[in-house]
């Protein structure tokens, strides 16, 4: 785990809060959505009005370990561009964007919301399966007050995993899928050209299901 700031900004009541941007990066299956929801719920306890924005074409919540119970008391909306948010967030003090790499206007809108006094929490992949920056998402780093990069567990050798590896043959950047198309891997296993072990796609040879369940959260 890499933390580019000493800690996330302190949670205070809405009347004392200042606009800022928090970014949660990491590969697939690293717990980004879980961390985003955890932060939002803490702000909600402090009497903030919160909103979570999701990408409508992503249906991986069950696989990621995110149930409806996790968000049943939160204001969750779906949209394809964040420019639609302007009218929705007038009464909100916290705006959280999940899977932010899919929103082309995330950098502009996040900066606008923070300048308007909103607390903006972003959860996103930092890199593609080729280990290249995902769209313009890395432009958030110099704009953010807090940047955290989470690790997963390598689904081949079980070391710390900082990268996402595509299992399928698709070459498009945006291919939505879960463990059927991707796996979290370490540097060595990402660079390896050896065929994937048969049991690496689903479970370890030791059947360490508790570790796998923990890593199947993005």
UniProtKB/TrEMBL annotation:
What Pfam families is this protein classified in? TK (PF00265)
Q: Which residues form the active site?
A: 99 (proton acceptor)
PROSITE patterns, per database record:
TK_CELLULAR_TYPE (PS00603)
The record lists substrate as bound by 182
| Record GO biological process | DNA biosynthetic process; thymidine metabolic process
A Gene Ontology molecular function term of the record: ATP binding
Known EC number: 2.7.1.21
Q: Which UniProt keywords apply?
A: ATP-binding, DNA synthesis, Kinase, Metal-binding, Nucleotide-binding, Transferase, Zinc
Q: Which family does it belong to?
A: Belongs to the thymidine kinase family.
Quaternary context: Homotetramer. Tetramerization from dimerization is induced by ATP and increases catalytic efficiency due to a high affinity for thymidine. Interacts (via the KEN box) with FZR1.
Its protein name is Thymidine kinase
Q: Which organism is it from?
A: Oedothorax gibbosus
